[in-house]
Amino acid sequence: MSAAMDTESTYSGYSHYSGHSKKAHRQGRDRHKSPRSKDGSRSEKSVTIQTPPAEPLLGNDASRAEEGQDDNWGETTTAITGTSEHSISQEDIARISKDLEDSVGLDCKRYLGLTVAAVLGLLVFLTPIAFILLPQILWRDDLEPCGTVCEGLFISVAFKLLILLIGTWALFFRQPKADLPRVFVFRALLLVLIFLFVFSYWLFYGVRILDSKDTNYQGIVQYAVSLVDALLFIHYLAIVLLELRQLQPVFTVKVVRSTDGESRYYSLGHLSIQRAALVVLENYYRDFTVYNPALLTASKSRAAKHMAGLKVYNVDGPGNNASGQSRAMIAAAARRRDSSHNELYYEEADHERRVKKRRARLVVAVEEAFTHIKRLQAEEQQKAPGEMMDPREAAQAIFPSMARALQKYLRTTRQQQYHSMESILQHLSFCITNNMTPKAFLERYLNPGPTLQYDRDRWFSKQWTLVSEETVTSGLQDGVVFVLKCLDFSLVVNVKKIPFIKLSEEFIDPKSHKFVLRLQSETSV
């Protein structure tokens, strides 16, 4: 009953732009009376609770009854209702609590690392200043006078600390892009190296300067300058290890999406497995087309329909067992296998014909709608102030003329779940504002774009799981395979090392390019 109310409210939100009869409304409402959710049994690791979308989707219109068989895929669309059909066991509750504890542990680990790095960085910058100020505070009267060279060292320390501060801010103080399962090895080694280095300087300073109360103030300042110089060299080492080392391409990785087989190739340098996984995910959201599970239901429904058409008759009476029926169904399916490719061929050809037909209707409808809009110049805006509209109002005015054609095309290409009516109006007003053509407006809908193009709430997966036989902190090697899993699909990554290429040189003398004309009796020369 809740699903029917959701479908009815969806239709009422969209009926302002596409007027359909009440009969079609009742047919669409009965058709979506009891949908089943698919997300309840997809993942054994985590449970994600997702709220219903705020805007009605274009694919929930009740005009499916007029479209025939090509729109029947919408009957399997998941509807989110307020009543749950799945029960939660004690194991599920324990798994949810474990996931919450893991998330809290990740947050604590991240903030602990930031706190340690901030405290250590503050200690590094205050140490040279403390080396210079402590003698002035403790035994000022016993110090030797600071000459011109000593005062010049003050300026050197000040500018070197400023350069070190800017370099540290540019290299380390960045917004974290992800929570990795393990620590970054090189970053941890640098923190340990800096701690040992500053500790050794403090130890030497306490034994040789504080205890003896050294009166050579220029030597103390020179000691502080040497500390700042060493810190600058450590910063250069950090740039080499954290930034420059991974720039040289060493490996080629092939990323394959497990559901539809879409693949991409990327070149990576010397990275650990967890950082390589992070690079793969960043490129996935940019290069891969958005994951559309509706495109995968066609083959499943075709196979189910193929098996549903088989009937088994028990001619030997009720005493025959079920294994004979199974063998009979398998044999019948094998006999019909030769004709199944013809069904697939004609089904795909018919689908392509419908897509081309509705694409042409959509292009014509959008071009006609854009002809009703004219951008007013500055002098024209003063003549007819009552007829002017802002881009949002203009988009709402021309949208009804293209809404039906766009809706049918999105349903046919299984894209309606990624385009809400509000997002289409925003895109239309954006195109009108920037004086874009109808072809530029249709580019988003005619050509499925990358994942980042769509609304973040419809594709973003908050949790990825890295599965690898090797430790995730180890470097990439030739033949390493790891998997990135999310709730709906997984990315299989295969690592191959770029082969060593040997080039040889061969010199060709320019004077050796001589030719002779060979004449025959049959030629016309």
UniProtKB/TrEMBL annotation:
Keywords: Cell membrane, Membrane, Transmembrane, Transmembrane helix. This is VANG1 protein. Pfam families: Strabismus. It is found in: Cell membrane. Its main location: membrane. Residues 1-86 are annotated as: Disordered. Residues 19-35 have a biased composition (Basic residues). The chain crosses the membrane at residues 111-133, 153-172, 184-204, 224-244.
